[in-house]
Design brief:
19 helices, homodimer, two-stranded antiparallel sheet, alpha+beta
Chain lengths: ~600, ~600
């Protein structure tokens, strides 16, 4: 099966995405228009991304003191991506968008991440930045910044982390002070001067676009000049690299934002990752140091604005991890089909006089390929399911939107974390299938593995997703979200019980779901977050495997309803793999959660 | 604890290595002499290896058409290693050795692999090569080749794989034909001309030593000029890069061995990995093409000779994987102690007004550190246990040697595979502890992770170890090896049952051991290797975790007997981690083994 065939199966057969066309927003769409978007993206990815993925890795971004240089092929890929219109795919027609459902947009964009995740300027960041402005910006902010981002004229960044704070956003110390006495009369909104350092900023400096629009978290000092501790004091600002006028034209003024350095990474090398200095006076602007920034939304509301976009960003990260895994699966499948080595093991041993067979005939190679298929296709299905929920959130009726919101709250930590762990494992298996060749840079699999290792770190580490899930999501509103998710799973289980071939899977999932429920209660039995959360990560792993088993069972039900084909057989086999080889791991992870095991948290520093 | 402290605890307190000094061979040794070897190696590793580990990675070996170049720091490290005498550490005094026990030799060498696994010319290969000649070579072969290798004047390689054969040695097609009518009268033994290509040859070309001694597997054609299919037709040859006379002096003749290319790898970059052409005529020698090689042992006995050294080589690979894991553990522990970020989660949430705490105070960071400790120290303990068995094999009484042989047969697949999988996972956790910093090349952890990924591939892949274990080792001699290993484990379990604190671990291990035994029987219940071996890898994983639980329980018993200290508390905590977080995974792996699950082996190519 090709990735395209599997994607279409998920979109049309499983998620019934065509039914969205009955909604006003998508009324002009049809399977044909969706397919043509997929065609376009698949083609650009094949022609402009895939052939240059290794170059993006070997020719790392470099800084000549003024400009950051990327390979010409990355510029060409970025141009082709811009021209595809995908930056504005989900936007209204009237601002140049396609009014595409999120689920189709994500599926179409996944061709790019599969072909070259570090190439082309990271469109997701730019459209995410612009989407945030569409939700929280003023009319002029939308008009000038968001629309030029959707058009690809400007690119966007998200500036959250700082060297001393990392994931701990409450410790942000970038300061925003009013810029002059007329600071409140700027057409772009209250105008501030920002001073501080931002770390880990993807695409913080490059020449791919006319301008770079930084969205920056900073604190406005109180009357005594002090920063408010915690996240409540954080505000959000638009800080363009080059200042623009109300018509969106560059004024010729360079803002006081300077590249302090590029990070040299293990993977994802096509994307320049930067340390940025705001307002240190390297580029004094309008007569003084300090980066000019315009407040977005209300002061103190910065984190809420930023997190508005977090669900979609996390789904996108998960889908990127899934497609990286899938790329390795494809490469190792091709290798296994073409590499002759060894002979089948029969009752009488091996017959060395026979010719060698392609290694795909060996059971252990099949196991490694099927594991990859099960991880990566399962992950793609999960991400598309979540993207479909985003559509429900935006265009469903009130009850549907409410339900979608709650399900997304529950599933986002899994959508972010699960593929980043298991599709990385898939990439390792792809290396293993290729053996020594997989360990060389002559084949792409080692790069996929390096690239994918980022995904457990950025957009909230694994540990942070785990705290979010067990510390907030499963307990919020008295456990309403968990109850809703369980009811969805139970629906699938019930339908599976009616299909003899899938009934055992249904039973197994019911058992896992019950175990997760019990572990959730046991973890919180003492009400002490320190005890409950000490094993949040194993809980996240168990929860994730349970969710994926549910996704696979639901996909299997869909495959079972169709006429038998190689595709449906493959999906049923991948589901079976997941139930037989993966789901049994759940009790092992839950054991320490249930018992509130304190082995780790009681570990003394001196004993290490 | 430092690595040195832990190593000494394993050597002296747990394995009671000093008792070896009662044996004649080691009579001149004492804890003082052992410690002084450890001192020397630790110091050289710290001064000559560790500071240059990144350089060995970034300045890859390169070929100017004639010579392979390595960084000067790698030459200096190789010189220091040679001068340490460690190449001949285990050899007799009379040939310049130290008569060091294998377990002390391995422990001492582990400082080098921890400091820079790709630096210094891979002494293990050279001494392994020479050891093989000591076991199977003629007096002159030992005198000229082995002794110069032990002295570091010559370096060695092992040439097994070929491009078309990979792990399938029965498909080796390198041909060895008699070199002239007087081929049997060469003082070095029967002289042949070899023609063929060898792939994945570590240290196949370099300037670190005066000469390179290749040990090459090749086939001698039968009377009709045909190669015998299968492994029985394989013979072993000494093929020096430069020919030498019976006094070991270079004759000035270059042998017909040519570098065809260097592999560019994901890691382990300090070691040149080569494709070698034997006998293609690039360097005609004595008037004709064909690489001159001298038969070692009997014709057709090549694989047996080669595998004679395999146990020690595989233990060394496992120990290398363990020390790479440990290096990451050290780096991430240091980072976690020094990096302030976030605040403890209390009943009332977090107090943002408090200063940030070092991340080692967070439970999830402690979990990641303790997991690393448990994986890596456990792996080191296992490897030293195996090395101690090698000493028993060589210097024990008859019964002891026989038992050691059988235990080594059982444990070698685990010693090779387990650290290569789980200390790689440790390296990934080290990256995770460092977060974004861990993903940059400014910190060493990403390199350890890349380096360690090799270990599941070379010296027999994971899949091959699994087939060896379930296909041969556990069934040989009617299951004698498994029974012996089980009796050793039961001894530990019995002792643990008498210690209240460890009794639960003892019960858990007994359960796992029973499950492994049952799964072994079920796998072979039909007697069909295809069915039995389809899930050999999950079996290997379950078996490995059971073995490591046993090792940890035995180590815990030793720690428990000592006065309480940070070291003993740490060992007990790491054991507890293994029993609570890791051992419960065993049933998940065994499930498919017990049921001879055919999901993978029945997977149709077209369904992928």
């Amino acid at each position: 099966m090709t990735y395209r065939q599997t994607t279409e199966f998920f979109l049309y057969d499983w998620l019934n995405v065509e039914s969205l066309n009955q909604r006003t927003r998508f009324a002009d769409h049809s399977r044909e228009t969706f397919d043509s978007v997929l065609d376009t993206c698949e083609k650009i990815a094949r022609d402009k991304f895939a052939p240059f993925n290794r170059i993006a890795d070997t020719e790392e971004p470099w800084f000549d003191g003024e400009k950051v240089h990327l390979p010409e092929s990355s510029h060409a890929a970025a141009r082709a991506f811009q021209e595809s219109g995908m930056l504005a795919a989900a936007q209204d027609y009237e601002i140049g968008g396609m009014q595409l459902p999120c689920v189709v947009e994500m599926a179409a964009n996944s061709f790019f991440s599969k072909a070259g995740i570090g190439i082309g300027g990271g469109g997701m960041l730019t459209s995410g930045n612009a989407n945030l402005l569409m939700a929280h910006g003023t009319e002029l902010q939308k008009q000038v910044f968001a629309r030029n981002e959707f058009a690809g004229r400007f690119y966007g960044t998200m500036c959250l982390s700082e060297p001393q704070a990392g994931s701990s956003l409450s410790d942000v110390v970038t300061r925003a002070t009013p810029d002059g006495s007329d600071f409140e009369s700027d057409p772009f909104g209250p105008r501030y001067r920002l001073r501080g350092n931002k770390m880990w900023i993807s695409n913080g400096e490059h020449e791919l676009s006319e301008n770079i629009i930084h969205l920056v978290l900073a604190k406005i000092p109180d009357a005594e000049g002090k920063l408010v501790p915690g996240t409540k004091g954080i505000s959000l600002f638009i800080v363009p690299k080059k200042l623009v006028d109300a018509q969106g034209q560059l004024t010729g003024e360079r803002n006081d934002v300077a590249l302090a350095g590029l990070n040299h990474k293990l993977g994802y090398r096509g994307i320049p990752n930067t340390l940025l200095n705001f307002g240190e006076g390297k580029y004094p602007v309008r007569g003084s140091a300090g980066a000019i920034g315009y407040l977005v939304g209300k002061a103190g509301d910065g984190l809420r604005c930023m997190f508005h976009m977090m669900n979609e960003a996390r789904i996108a990260v998960g889908l990127g991890a899934a497609t990286l895994g899938y790329a390795g699966y494809e490469a190792s499948l091709e290798y296994a089909r073409n590499r002759p080595q060894g002979r089948p093991m029969g009752v009488g041993g091996k017959d060395a006089k026979q010719p060698q067979v392609p290694i795909i005939q060996h059971a252990d190679v099949k196991r490694m390929l099927l594991a990859q298929k099960s991880y990566c296709e399962g992950a793609v299905a999960l991400e598309l399911y979540c993207a479909r929920l985003v559509d429900e959130l935006h265009t469903g009726d009130e009850a549907g939107a409410k339900e979608a919101h709650l399900l997304l709250e529950m599933l986002t930590p899994i959508a972010k974390s699960w593929p980043s762990e298991w599709c990385l494992e898939a990439n390792s298996l792809a290396i293993q299938v290729l053996g020594g060749y997989g360990y060389t840079r002559d084949f792409p699999v080692e790069q996929y593995w390096r690239d994918n290792r980022l995904n457990m770190i950025h957009e909230g580490t694994h540990g942070i997703q785990a705290l979010d899930l067990l510390g907030r999501k499963v307990v919020m509103d008295g456990g309403k979200g968990l109850a809703l998710l369980a009811s969805k799973m139970n629906g699938t289980i019930e339908r599976a019980m009616a299909v003899p071939e899938l009934a055992a899977h249904g039973n197994a999932l019911a058992g896992a779901l019950k175990a997760v429920g019990n572990a959730t209660k046991s973890a919180w039995a003492t009400g002490n977050p320190e005890e409950a959360l000490a094993n949040a990560t194993p809980y996240l792993q168990a929860f994730g495997h349970t969710v994926l088993a549910w996704i696979w069972l639901d996909v299997a039900l869909c495959a079972r309803r169709q006429p038998e084909s190689d595709l449906t057989q493959g999906k049923l086999a991948a589901a079976r793999y997941f139930f037989h080889y993966e789901l049994p791991k759940v009790p092992a992870w839950l054991k320490v959660v249930e018992t509130r095991d304190d082995t780790c948290r009681s570990m003394d520093d001196a004993w290490f």
